[in-house]
Amino acid sequence: MKNVFPLFFALLFASGLFAQKGYAPGERIAEFSLQDAVSGRSVSLQDYADRKGLIVVFTCNSCPYAKAYEQRIMALDRDFGVMGYPVIAINPNDPGRVPEDRPEAMKERAEERGYTFPYLIDAKQKLAQRFAAGKTPELYLLKKRKDGGFELVYHGAIDDSPMNPEGAKKHYVADAIRALESGRTPMPESSPAIGCTIKWKE
Predict the structure, then answer these.
(1) 3-class state of residue 152 by DSSP
(2) Where are the alpha helices (DSSP H) in 62-171?
C-alpha cells in the first residue's frame, strides 16, 4: 500500500493538478530563456528590455483552438509590435505525446505561415508551470516596470469568440493594450482561457 501514494502524487502532478499558482496581476515576471524553433537561438526577457511590454502566448501546432487563433496572434504582433508590444509564442506540449508539436514541425509551420515573432520550445515545460498555463492558446500580457523588468497586467483569452473571429464582441488583449497606452489599468485583468489542455509529460 505504501508504494501507491508516490504513484498517486506523480499522477496528480502529471495531470497538472499540482500546477504552480502562476503570476498575479502586478507581479514581476522572473527571467527566462528558451530556444527559438526557427532560428535555434535563445530568446530571453532581456532581449526585450527596450519594449513597453510583451504579449506572451502559450500555443501549439496541434490544437484546433490554437489553429483558429493563429491569424489573430499574428495580427497582434503586426498591430501592436510596432507600438512596443511584440508577441512571444511558446509551445509547451510534450512532442512525445503529440508528434505534430515536434520542434521540426514548429519550425516548418512558423516558416510556412510567416511568423514575425519567435516560436519558443518549452522542452521541460517549466515555464508553462511557472506561469500556471493550462491551455493552448493562453495569453499573458506584460508591461515594462520602472525597475526594468516586466509584470503581468492581463491573463486569459485573446477575445471571446475562439472559433469565429468575426463573432468577437470583447477583444481583451487589444483593449488591455489600449488601456495601458492611455495610462489606465486594464480591465478585466483576466478572462477564462479557452483551448486544448496542455499535453504534459507522462
Answers:
(1) strand
(2) 64-80, 103-113, 126-131
H or E element, residue 89: strand 87-91
Sheet strands (E) in 92-158: 119-121, 135-136, 138-144, 150-156
Q: pTM value?
A: 0.90
- pLDDT per residue as tens digits for the range 10-25: 444 444 444 458 999 9
16: left (phi over 0), alpha (psi -120 to 50) or beta: left
> What pLDDT, on the 0 to 100 scale, is given for residue 21?
84
Query: Above 80 in pLDDT, residue 1?
Result: no
Task: Select the CATH number that applies to the domain covering 22-197 from these four: 3.20.20.70, 3.90.25.10, 3.40.50.300, 3.40.30.10.
Answer: 3.40.30.10
Provide the pLDDT for residue 20: 58
Rounded Cα distance between 88 and 191, Å, is 20
* CA nearest neighbour of 199 among 50, 94, 57: 94
